[in-house]
Each structure stands twice: as C-alpha cells, then as structure tokens.
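Memo to structure team: turn this sequence into structure tokens by end of day. - J.P.
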Amino acid sequence: MHNPSRDDFDPIDYRKLCPLGAELVVFQPNPCIAKAHGPKAYHYKDGRVASCIDYEDPDYIGEFWPNQMASLITAAGLDHEKEDYEEELTRLICDHLELPALHRDMITVDRNLVASYY
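Reply from structure team:
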C-alpha cells in the first residue's frame, strides 16, 4: 500500500491474514515500479511463507525466502526469453495450487486512484 508520508510503499504482513489452517496466494504484478523489479508471487500456509517466487529468478531458494515450488518450476523448463513467460509461470503456479486461472483481462487497476498518489 502506498504511504504518502514516506512517498513509498509499505509492505503488508500477509501472514496475519493467513491463520493456522489457511492458505493464501498473493501476486504482486509490480512490486516496485521505480526500481523496475519484476512480479512476485507469495504462497502462505498456516501463517508462514511457503514459497516466494521472484519472476526474474523463479527457481531461486533464498536463505530468508523459501520456495517449495522451486523444483516444480525448474522441471517445467520455462523459457524466460519467451514473450508469454510471465503468463506461463502464473499458469504453472495456479495449476499447482489448484487456483482458478488468472488472465490479464481479469486484473483491474484503478488508474485514478494510482494517479491520486502522485
């Protein structure tokens, strides 16, 4: 969420939205426009991060960011040079977690709200 007092974005602690026995998947299509970072996806389970998937390096397993889906992503052999790479990776994540398919035309952005921050 944008914090005008910091002129930056505050992270949201999704773990609080995912109590014991619950699962939550969060897709961040533009985590940081200013720094041009690629999309990320987070899979929370029982209040903990099960996977943090960085679309720029999706099979990365970090010291602080687990990625239980890394082997699945590596085995899929997705080509990051392809134009529809992000869509393929999103589809792989959705299929693996048995989520409904996500399509670009389903994602809405309130451009007026975004413009009001600047």
